[in-house]
C-alpha cells in the first residue's frame, strides 16, 4: 500500500510551524517585557483585557504536543474538531493538517484578540488549510454558545480558568467516546478543570500525558 502524505511535512505548513515555534521560543522574554501589570491586579482584568495584554505572546502547544494532537485526530477521524484558544494558530495547523489528511472533517477554533485572529487567518490561507478551518473571533463562551454540531474532538488551550466553563458549555454536544484534551496541566489555573475531568462521577476517564507542561486526555464516558 502506498504511503499517504502527511500535511505537517508539506513545505508551506512546515515553514509556518518552524517560523512560529521560533517566535514562541522568545515568549518568556516577551512576557517579561509586556507583563507590566502587577500580579495582584491581573485578577481584576477581563478575559478580553488579558488577551489584549498578551497579544505578542504565542503561548503555543509544544511541538510534541502538536504531533500528538495530529495523531489523535488521524486515529479518531472526528467530523468536528473544536479548539478553545487559537493564539497565532500553531495548534490549529496540527489539527487542520490531520483533518486534511483524514479527507473529512472541519476545525472550529476561537480567538479573542483581534490581531492574533487576523494573523492566524493569514497563516491559514498561506498554508492552504483555510478551507478546513473556521475561526470564531470573540469571547469563546459567546461564540461557541451558538454551536449546534456535535463535538467530535475538543482541544482546550485558552485561558485556563475558562477551560471548565467552555467544557460545560459544550458538554451537551459531546457524545460518549469523544476525546477532550487540555494543555498545561502544570498551571494552577487549570485546577478546577482537572478536578472535574479526573472524577469519573462527572462522566470522564482521564490520563495525563507527560509532554512539556502536560496534556490531560479525557474520554467522555
Give structural attributes:
221 residues, alpha/beta, Rossmann fold, 10 helices, 7 strands
Explain how this protein is built.
The structure is a single chain. The mean pLDDT is 91. The chain has a single domain, classed as 3-Layer(aba) Sandwich (Rossmann fold). The N and C termini lie far apart (35 Å). The protein contains 10 helices and 7 strands. The chain has a 7-stranded mixed sheet with strand order 3-2-1-4-5-7-6, with helices on both faces. With 221 residues, it is α/β, with parallel strands linked by helices. It has helices at residues 11-24, 27-34, 39-42, 47-53, 63-76, 90-102, 114-127, 140-143, 163-170, 191-197; strands spanning 80-84, 106-111, 133-137, 151-156, 174-183, 204-209, 215-220. Strand 4 (151-156), helix 9 and strand 5 form a beta-alpha-beta unit.
| Main pleated-sheet profile | 7 strands, mixed
Could you say which overall geometry the principal axes of the C-alpha atoms support? globular
Category from helices, strands and their pairing: alpha/beta
What's the total helix number?
10
Provide the domain count. 1
Q: How much is the radius of gyration in Å?
A: 17 Å
Within the CATH hierarchy, at the fold level, what is the topology? Rossmann fold
Biggest sheet strand order reads: 3-2-1-4-5-7-6
β-strand amount: 15-25%
Could you estimate the helical fraction of the residues in percent?
40-55%
Level-1 CATH class name: Alpha Beta
- Strand count: 7
CATH architecture: 3-Layer(aba) Sandwich
Uncertain segments: none
